[in-house]
Amino acid sequence: MIYLLIGILFSSMLSILLRISEKYVKGDTATLAMNYVCCTVVAFFDAGALKVFAPHADLDIAVILGIIGGFAYLGSFLLLQYNIKENGVVLPATFMKLGLLVPTISSVIIFRERPGIVQIAGFVLAIAAIILINSGKKDDNRKELKIGLLVLLLILAGLGDVMSKFHEEWGSHDLTEGFLFFIFLTACTLCLGVTAYKKQKIGLWEIFFGLIIGIPNYYSSKFVLIALKSLPAVVVFPTFSVGCIVVVTLVGVLAFKEKLSKRQGTALGMIMVALAMLNM
Q: How far from 53 is each of 27, 46, 62, 161, 175, CA to CA, in Å?
């Protein structure tokens, strides 16, 4: 459980840094690209530099799953941006968080993980809380609802986590960092291409925030993978998702002086109960 908690802290740090960077960066895709550059470099050396290319019986699994995961990582971000233009802010944000359904359900169907009644109730409560915490925001930009785009966002948002679960089950633990290297290398290559296509300039602020965001981004992914070695996915992914919501919300209240509505307070209370139930 300690590794999952560390992963939550790193992921929350990522969200907080993204919040701070909004005042300084002009190119969101450029910042994301530099983030992936940092993640790729850190993963490369964390894996033992050139050892990521050394012959290994399960290297092909790490490469294939990593490439798919890289497409999912970047694809979900770009689709989120597009969905916000087409469906407003609230629904895309909610559906992206609900991406945890994909790895959780996949683990039950494919790997026969069997959560207890209390954990199932906690999972349902967590989903309800995620919907509630996003339900009260205004959605002035929404045009005609395009549900297909939202469902695709949900699937892509969860696909990267599915690849992590697949690697944990089918890959080698010796290649954990190598698997992450191929994820971020793929996302980095694609994102640099998108940045060039959009003609976004990579300035000093984009480089600075991209690099400092990349470190918690990498380690949040790494510690979730480590947590999957000892905990079932039906516990890891819901706990990770709602745990990040709690930490980021508390930091928003304490550091950024944000105020919680009654609805948000109720949702956070539901999340705390859900976390307890998921880990019983």
A: 33, 13, 11, 23, 10
d(CA 223, CA 279): 17
Helices (H) and strands (E) in the chain, counts: 11, 0
Give which of 95, 110, 96, 123 is closest to 235, Cα–Cα: 123
Model pTM score? 0.86
DSSP 109-162: HHS-----HHHHHHHHHHHHHHHHHHHTS--TT--S--HHHHHHHHHHHHHHHH
DSSP for residue 171? S
Q: How far apart are CA 77 and CA 99, in angstroms?
A: 12
Residue with tokens 């915490």, as numbered in its chain: 133
163-to-97, 155, 260 alpha-carbon distances in Å = 17, 12, 35
Residues 6+ away with beta carbon under 8 Å from 67: 182, 183, 186
Distances 60 to 40, 49, 162 between C-alpha atoms, Å: 18, 18, 17
Percent of the chain with pLDDT over 90: 42
Contact at 8 Å (CB) between 188 and 93? Answer: no
pLDDT in tens, 146-205: 788 888 988 998 999 999 999 999 988 888 899 999 999 999 999 999 999 999 888 999
pLDDT digits (tens, 9 = 90+) for 76-128: 888 888 887 777 766 777 788 888 889 989 999 999 988 889 989 998 998 99
